[in-house]
Structures are given as C-alpha cells and as structure tokens.
Design a protein that fits this description.
- It contains 14 helices and 13 strands.
- The two termini are about 25 Å apart.
- About 40% of the residues are buried.
- The chain folds into 2 domains: about 1-175 and about 355-370, Glycogen Phosphorylase B (Rossmann fold); about 190-350, Rossmann fold, CATH 3.40.50.2000.
- The strands form 2 sheets. It has a 7-stranded parallel β-sheet, sandwiched between helices. Strands 10-9-8-11-12-13 form a 6-stranded parallel β-sheet, with helices on both faces.
- The longest helix is centred in the N-terminal third of the chain and has 28 residues, at about 65-95.
- By secondary structure, it is α/β, with parallel strands linked by helices.
- Helix 1 (about 10-25) packs parallel to helix 2 (about 40-50), helix 1 (about 10-25) packs across helix 14 (about 355-370) and helix 7 (about 205-220) packs across helix 12.
Amino acid sequence: MVVCGAAYVSGKEVMTLELLRGLKQTLIETHAITSVWNNGDFIRALDEMGVGHTQMALGFISATLRWSPMKMTADQILRWPLLLRRYRRALKYVAPDVVVHTNWHHLIVLLPFLRPDRDMFWVHECIQKAPRFAQLFRMLSGRLKVFVAVSHAVADSLMANGVPKSQIVVIHNGIRDTYPANGEVRARQDSVVVGIVGQIIRTKGHEDAVAAFAHLAQEIDNVTLHIIGSGDADFIAGIKNAIESRKLTDRVAWLGYLKREEIFKNVDVCLVPSRTPEALPTVAIEAALWKRPVVATSCGGLPEIIEDGRSGLLCAAGDPESIAIATRKLLLDEELRKCMGEFARSSAIEKFSAQRFILKFESLLTDAVAGRKIAAIAS
C-alpha cells in the first residue's frame, strides 16, 4: 500500500505513479491512499492504470504561523478522528504487508498506526538540518522499518538529522524513456534554444536563468529561451517584468505545460539552476535521456545525475554569470553538445532506467516482507 498526497502531478507524484505502474506488472499487489485535496489528475492516472485507491482527508500539521498554513493545520486537526477511523478500515480491508509513505506530514497524522515491521518512508526531499527535524526524524526512526532515499544527497540529509545509516537505503528514481526509438524528428530552426523546465517558483532558479540568458543574448544573436511549465502567478509576473526590463521579450517563449515527449524536441541545452538542494530533479534525467546536456547547480542530487564535463556542466548555486559562461560554452560548440548528449543518454539509461528502479524497489519490498536484513545505503 502506498500513502501519497497527490494534490497535483509533479515530481514526487510522477515517481509514485511510475512505481505503481511498474509494480502492477510484477506479482506485487498495490493500493493507493490519497488525499481528498487534489485536482483529479493523479486519481485519473490511477484509474487508467487500474490501481485501486481510497481518498482520505490527508493534510498536514505545520508549525508556520502564517494564516494559510494555520488554517490548513486546524482543518486537519478537526478531521483527524475521522481520518484515523477511515485509515484503520483501509488497513483492515487491504491488509498490506508493506506500507510505503511519501510524505512526512502524513507520517505525523498517521503516527498511531506506524509499525517498524511494516511501514517505510520513501523520501523525496533533502531534509533541512534543524533541531525540530532532528527530533522528528529520530522519533520516526523508531516507528519505521526503513527510509528509502531517492539520492545520496537525501541520505546525507537524513543522517544529519539523526537517522541511523543502517536504516537508510538509496534507490535512485528511474523513469520511462520517451526518446523516439527511430531517432528524432526535429523541426528545422535557425536559433539555438536554452530551456528551463518545471514549476516556476523561486527555488527553481528562474531569476538566475533569466539573468544568465541576458548575458548570452548580448553575445549570441540567434539564442532564445524557452520557459516550460507553470507556477505561482505573482512570481511569473515578476519574471516577465525582469525579461521586459532587459528588452528580451521577443527572445523568450512561454510554452506552459507540455507532454514529456514534447519538452525537449526543440531544446539544445537544458538549465536546472536550482537555488536550494533538490533530491533528484527528474527534469535533469529526462534531458539526459533526450541527449540534451544540462547546465545545473552543484547542489542536492544534481551531481549524481550530471557528470561535470561529460554529460553536462555544474555551476555554483545563485551565480548567473557562471551559468552563462557554462551555457555559452555549449551553445557555441555543436560537436561538444552532441558528445555530451550521447554520453548523458548512455549514463541515464544505465543509472536511471525505469526497469532498474522497479527491480530495486521490488527487491526491497520482497526483502521487507520476508523479514530479511535490508542493505544500508547501496546505490
């Protein structure tokens, strides 16, 4: 059984669907517990896959004193007794051998039902080192069987917050390969394209991407920037103002949400300028599978995806100038882009294939059910 939020399909939810899809093809039966607070996309995906699911009032408990988090916390507390009754019934109905949780907020509200012989936490975030998190995760380590980290960066953050190394296993995420089997069919274009993909929020580094692109636009006449994804309306307005003030509006394309197989068709270099440590950004893996070299910041799990100088280039976080220098190097050398792209794809297939990911997770679940010792960390 997998307990997940599923407010909308992005990052963690994409990987949860990949896991459920992959396990459905094995002998492992699955059932999903999702939050009633969702936009319907995740539920539709479950129905299309034929995965059974139950929706519950799964929210979160926050210590933030802002009005919105406090309101949601109060709502969760009011719904908590009913949530516990419904979750107890689900456990009785499904009778899971293993419960995989994807959100530590849910672990808190479901704390009475956690069992160290059955429950595990699949961790998709680099956990901030702080006394409150150290206290929380030390407590959870006594109530869970194992912490499944999606990267070594995540594993390090767990250990920094008091989780024993012996209780952590690393399984890198893996995704389905959407690169055309018969090669690319790419529209002929007269420009070279830099793309940034994903949620448009401050931590993703869009401001740094625009500042870096401003440097590039001064030196390379035929370079354009594609911004792919959606996000916070106020933040997007600020980014558009920054683009307009630099007189770059006609050289930037806002493409919104695109299907996975459409994202990289017309991108030459992918930017992942994360300002804060991300666990294992899926976009960097997808770009690699599409033979696109990545210019990224060297924080979180990005160095586990990108081999600096071979499959892409790594820069300091929050440094638009270094991002511009690295991107310029790739844009001006088509042969270098091609070589890095080929290496990136072969490396991604080896490390981040959906098959490898499912096999490792299946082995973990099988060992957990059999009561066998689970190897710590791994790779």
